[in-house]
Amino acid sequence: MSMQPRIVVVDDDPDMRRMIKEALSGAGFLIEELVDGAQLADRLRTSPRPELVLLDINMPVQSGWGTLNELRADPALASVPFIMVTSYDDEDFRRRADELGAKGYIVKPFTPRELVNRVRVALFG
Is the pTM of this model over 0.90? Predict the structure, then answer.
């Protein structure tokens, strides 16, 4: 792992991406922003692998679920670590995220401190 872990944030909401970037950059993480899951698949196939992906579930082009299913089906990308980010505080969604191997599940709205703590747990245990 690099000195500054690289995190890709995938969310169609620019305000949410900005808040996440500010919180995590301030905690020493390198942040890359994408607006949909299709961009993520392309990015993961062509660029150095991030240490973690924060993936919104509800996006217009491709949902987080669809994105995660696509990546899990590709042996080269199947082990990329994810935290699902969503406004749904739903037990079925949490279970589905867990079954798909997500390293965490964060419900919006969340505080910058909660976000940083969850990311650190996902990365460092």
Answer: yes
